[in-house]
Design goal:
- By secondary structure, the chain is an all-alpha fold.
- The chain has helices at 9-31, 33-45, 56-86, 93-116, 120-140.
- It has one domain (9-141).
- Helix 1 (9-31) packs antiparallel against helix 5 (120-140) and helix 4 (93-116) packs antiparallel against helix 5.
- The longest helix is centred in the middle third of the chain and has 31 residues, at 56-86.
- The model has no long low-confidence stretch (mean pLDDT 94).
Length: 148
């Protein structure tokens, strides 16, 4: 009887840490609205103060939208970390599919809209986040088994 090796701890830990990085980034979006607004303004307009030039009401709306997105990212990151730690680390194909599927469900529409609307720097940011997950997911794929 062959002994099968489980998923690599290195890659599962990477996946958990990448998930927690998503949650931490979300916390920054919620907890540091000025930093978040100026960061995204720099990203999409190459000017950290451009969004503030839209006026106080628009700036408050941008802050609200960013905080809502940040809150969703916190929840998503925590969920990804839990699935990675409890399921993917045990070789669960279902867990792997949840992580990979949720990333694809975010990446494709977000990136396509960013490109379509002309805000390509956001697509580059998306690609960097996606790469954090693509590497461990690719490395772990072969170690996943069908769930009972």
């Amino acid at each position: 009887m062959a002994i099968t090796e489980g998923p690599s701890r290195f890659w599962t830990n990477w996946l958990v840490l990448a998930s927690l990085a998503v949650a931490a980034f979300g916390l920054v979006l919620v907890g540091a609205p000025t930093l978040a607004r100026r960061g995204f303004s720099l990203l999409v307009y190459f000017d950290p103060l451009r969004v503030e030039g839209f006026g106080p009401e628009a700036t408050r709306y941008v802050d609200l939208s960013t905080a809502v997105i940040g809150g969703v990212m916190v929840g998503w990151g925590v969920a990804l970390a839990a699935v990675s730690r409890r399921l993917v680390s045990r070789g669960s194909r279902f867990g792997w599919n949840v992580v990979a599927g949720s990333l694809a469900a975010w990446f494709v529409p977000d990136t396509l809209y960013s490109l379509w609307s002309g805000f390509w720097p956001n697509a580059v940011l998306n690609l960097s986040f996606a790469t954090l997950f693509a590497l461990p997911l690719a490395a772990l794929r072969a170690a996943m088994r069908d769930d009972d």
